[in-house]
Amino acid sequence: VTCGDFSDKTVLITAGPTREALDPVRYITNHSSGKMGYAIAQAAQRAGARVILVSGPTQLATPAGVERIDVTSAQQMLETVMAHVKSCDIFIATAAVADYRASHISQNKIKKKDDELTLTFVKNPDILKEVACLPTPPFTVGFAAESQNVEHYARQKLINKKLDIIAANDISREGLGFNSDQNALHVIWADGDKRLEPQNKKHLACALLTVINDRYNNKKTS
Ligand code: C5P
């Protein structure tokens, strides 16, 4: 199977969760497995791309031929992405970046004390939005994991974040999405859309890349 021709293209991909420290022994994170991003990285590499994969903590093996850079927090992910974005043609943000981080990372272990504990959080940078708002951005692809009004919220993100494509997935659908091997996507761009039916994430990655290749070429020639 071909997923489009990505030879002489550099694709930068974020994947996995981020991990936000609270103190030297604790952190907050989410259930992202990184499987979708790694599947896209592998498929893009096989389709001829140079692939740079900026990965949060995952259990996954690096796909052959992919340049992987490990990061932990959202801030590290942003710095690493910004250091490589100028050389990339296409940016695909699959990472489940933590929306917030602790306002203050305690130097010492937080001690058990009262019955209630209150922590304060501050907003993390939106990596995808920062990339899409660069003066000369790469072709940008975002993901929208939604549990309701999927298409409506996805279209809002496409516009608000100034993306070329958004791939929406309905996380309320049983057995799909987060931490699963299967997923379905509703791929949306300014003047069209395509539904990719439930399938293995490796096959889905290829189907998504076919759409990306098509829209990328369309943008280049218009
Ligand atoms: O706004 P929301 O988090 O739903 O947007 C999801 C999309 O934005 C995903 O593509 C995700 O990788 C990206 N994102 C990001 N940095 C953030 C939050 C989300 O790159 N801080």
Automatic annotation (TrEMBL):
One of the GO biological process terms: pantothenate catabolic process
Keywords of the record: Decarboxylase, Flavoprotein, FMN, Ligase, Lyase, Magnesium, Metal-binding, Multifunctional enzyme
Cofactor section: FMN; Mg(2+)
Region (Phosphopantothenate--cysteine ligase): 11-222
Positions contributing to CTP binding: 99, 109, 125-128, 143, 157, 161
Keyword Coiled coil tagged: no
Domain annotation DNA/pantothenate metabolism flavoprotein C-terminal: ranges: 7-213
Pathway(s) where this gene product acts: Cofactor biosynthesis; coenzyme A biosynthesis; CoA from (R)-pantothenate: step 3/5; Cofactor biosynthesis; coenzyme A biosynthesis; CoA from (R)-pantothenate: step 2/5
Cofactor note: Binds 1 FMN per subunit.
UniProt catalytic activity: N-[(R)-4-phosphopantothenoyl]-L-cysteine + H(+) = (R)-4'-phosphopantetheine + CO2; (R)-4'-phosphopantothenate + L-cysteine + CTP = N-[(R)-4-phosphopantothenoyl]-L-cysteine + CMP + diphosphate + H(+)
GO cellular component, one term: phosphopantothenoylcysteine decarboxylase complex
Enzyme nomenclature, EC number: 4.1.1.36, 6.3.2.5
Domain of life: Bacteria
Gene Ontology molecular function, alphabetical: FMN binding; metal ion binding; phosphopantothenate--cysteine ligase activity; phosphopantothenoylcysteine decarboxylase activity
Stated family: In the C-terminal section; belongs to the PPC synthetase family. In the N-terminal section; belongs to the HFCD (homo-oligomeric flavin containing Cys decarboxylase) superfamily.
Function: Catalyzes two sequential steps in the biosynthesis of coenzyme A. In the first step cysteine is conjugated to 4'-phosphopantothenate to form 4-phosphopantothenoylcysteine. In the second step the latter compound is decarboxylated to form 4'-phosphopantotheine. Catalyzes two steps in the biosynthesis of coenzyme A. In the first step cysteine is conjugated to 4'-phosphopantothenate to form 4-phosphopantothenoylcysteine, in the latter compound is decarboxylated to form 4'-phosphopantotheine.
Protein name: Coenzyme A biosynthesis bifunctional protein CoaBC
Organism: Salinimonas sediminis
